[in-house]
Amino acid sequence: MANGDLERGGGMNGKKRPNSYHHHPPTSPYYVEVENTEKQWTSWLVPMFVVANVAAFVVVMYINDCPNNNLGFEGSCVAQFLGRLSFQPLRENPLFGPSSNTLEKLGALEWKKVVNGNQGWRLITCIWLHAGVIHLLANMLSLVFIGIRLEQQFGFVRIGLIYLLSGLGGSILSSLFIQQNISVGASGALFGLLGAMLSELLTNWTIYTSKAAALITLVLIIAVNLAVGILPHVDNFAHIGGFLTGFLLGFVLLLRPQFGWVGRQHLPAGARVKSKHKAYQYVFWVIAMVLVIVGFTVGLMMLFRGENGNKHCSWCHYLSCVPTSKWHCGNK
């Protein structure tokens, strides 16, 4: 990897070029539920995701085999006592990880290969690859703190779908706007979980206490993390794509019954029973479902037609990098 190569970055055929990465979101805020009589699930899928990511990283490092493949131009391998699991020189990859060529070979997202090489599977495989130990630990800690709580509340099916589809949404948007670098990482999926938390709070607004404080806290966390994306070498398009996907899916998949529905069986005979959901929840559901379908359809059509999103939006590149006197954005 070239200088500053973190997540969402890499090079081809040994040539250096600017790279970008995903910044990991922090832990989630906690807000108190008024009526907590719904089923609590046992979280097993999120821990399995963590295991899968760690296992994938070990396999990547084994195949990378720095001692036998490092040409020495950037220095010696790091932690050589690990044998073929040792890391690339820090000048090449400061995150303690493999080379860009290894990531590219094993499924990193690369626009040319997706569009011209018919390798659409890279939109998914890139989510399971990480640029280094630091990158992996940051994302997995975020996944544990955010994902386990959500899975306990909503079950593995819904949270698994949000995670995977948000990762895909982030990959699609990233490919439309950043077409010069390879890309890896789970941050789009993690931002999707944050987006789902926000829409879940909004659509189930009436059943929570301390909801204003929870909303402010959650919005601040999301805003700060998206703001980090304007720095160089950070792929904010993957963050934004993942967040928007998760935000919409939260309206579709994370509806809760309104207050009083869960305990309806304890009401006296003849008592008026409320409907399971409020009218606005159904309105949000329909709008979000339409936007998800349209968004994925249009995004995939544009991607496989070879469209460059920057030609349709001349200012959008500022969403991912804002040049200053301190740094340049290059071809991010």
UniProtKB/TrEMBL annotation:
Residues 14-25 have a biased composition (Basic residues). Its EC number is 3.4.21.105. Pfam families: Rhomboid. InterPro entries: Peptidase_S54_rhomboid-like (IPR002610), Peptidase_S54_rhomboid_dom (IPR022764), Rhomboid-like_sf (IPR035952). Residues 118-254 form the Peptidase S54 rhomboid domain. It is found in: Membrane. Its main location: membrane. Keywords: Hydrolase, Membrane, Protease, Serine protease, Transmembrane, Transmembrane helix. Residues 1-26 are annotated as: Disordered. The chain crosses the membrane at residues 44-63, 127-148, 160-178, 184-205, 212-231, 237-255, 282-304. It catalyses: Cleaves type-1 transmembrane domains using a catalytic dyad composed of serine and histidine that are contributed by different transmembrane domains. SUPFAM superfamilies: Rhomboid-like. It is a multi-pass membrane protein. Serine protease involved in intramembrane proteolysis. Belongs to the peptidase S54 family. This is RHOMBOID-like protein. It comes from Hibiscus sabdariffa.
